[in-house]
């Protein structure tokens, strides 16, 4: 039995686990990913990458790989209603969803992981996790050969039945599967003329989406067959019959490549961390796949956790920083729980006259710009804002609370030394970024210095090329490695003499 020592062990090599592994490796950590499957899954449960996820990848300089492999769609849906969500109102360079199969997303992430030097081990089944001095030990078998890997932390990116979550003893409360939906990746001899067909009536609901290469995804909610157990295999005949019931025809579906069934099971882990075991993605939350949120929220979990865990392991932050992972992302998971339950009600409890009336009314309400924008921000992940700074504000500086927790789009910066550069180009290394605004008067106290380990912070003197008015009165912005503003401080002439307390211990280490 081989005993290896690494910094972090990630269980699961799906999009979420690979995203986390890349973040950790970017910070120089030794990372091993254990995946029970011998090779990547060919089928793609997820087809949607939301703009906020693309933006996150752009912060690391790899978004172009995904953009080249996907198709931009400027709108989205809420509960399959007729009124589409308009992403153009969002302040971002990526106001769209990217239509890209999960299999392609995984291929691109795994290629990036290998470039960075992540150790990805396939056909590796985890059997036991044991807490040891200053870490954890993960035992199992890879291709029949036992392994024992020790690390400082283990992260479960191992799905809804997470072994890591079970070993940690974390509750996974929520609602069991009550209703199921059919899915088929098939060929159509008479495809619909509309590229993305959506049908809803008192018989059920249907979506037909072209996957390319003559393949189509057909998703059917049949009001008479929602009680079929999740474990019962879908047949081509069943999919055809239900498609005809809902749409009046089956579009000549044939030659299935994948038939499956999914449910409205909805659960949320009670904690995202217990000691040295942490959870991301489906290991922390599952729900009806409505609005294409699951993979995206999971990858954003990974982005939130990655730099924090790296900071702790590298000795640049106290372990208390990891508490902010649960505080920030569990709230996002709770919001996801609620919005997918609401969509489930609109999609699966609406096959009668009152239900259809509710859908019609809600669709009309979504034409109100403010409501449409709120839902667009919510589903895309752009609406996430964190409530409190993580780094302490030194005495003598005024915190500007309107900036705390805000995500920033990719500003073009006019550099103090001349020339221009994008904001995101300074986030590629995964460090904190201190943006010293050169249009502020330095005065006798000079530039702002955050209470962080200096090795963990990059500093740039610049002003946004086209946003000076929005930054009036701001002396400096401290930007987290995930692109959110930790805090902003005022010009020195309006400073105060109180110390602002963050929601955690100061991140500075001696």
Structure, described:
With 510 residues, the chain is an alpha+beta fold. It has 3 domains: 2-174 and 266-380, FAD/NAD(P)-binding domain, CATH 3.50.50.60; 180-263, Alpha-Beta Plaits (2-Layer Sandwich); 401-494, 3-Layer(aba) Sandwich (Glutaredoxin). The chain has 10 helices and 29 strands. It has helices at residues 15-26, 51-58, 63-69, 102-116, 163-168, 236-247, 294-313, 323-348, 353-365, 369-380, and strands at 2-5, 8-11, 31-34, 48-50, 71-73, 75-76, 85-86, 97-99, 119-121, 124-132, 135-142, 145-151, 153-156, 172-175, 180-188, 197-200, 204-212, 215-222, 253-263, 266-269, 273-274, 277-279, 285-286, 412-415, 420-422, 432-437, 457-464, 474-479, 485-490. The chain has a 6-stranded mixed beta sheet. The two termini are 40 Å apart.
Summarize the structure.
This protein has 510 residues and is an alpha+beta fold. It is built from ten helices and 29 strands.
Unreliable sequence segments: 494-500
- Radius of gyration (CA) equals 24 Å
Question: How much of the residues is beta strand, in percent?
Answer: 25-35%
The fourth-level CATH homologous superfamily of the largest domain is FAD/NAD(P)-binding domain
Oligomer: single chain
What is the name of the CATH architecture of the largest domain?
Answer: 3-Layer(bba) Sandwich
* Count, helices: 10
CATH class of the largest domain: Alpha Beta
How many strand elements? 29
Shape: globular
Secondary-structure-derived class: alpha+beta
Number of domains: 3
Q: Say what the CATH topology of the largest domain is.
A: FAD/NAD(P)-binding domain
Largest sheet: 6 strands, mixed
Q: Can you give the mean pLDDT?
A: 93
Order of neighbouring strands in the sheet with most strands = 9-3-2-13-22-21
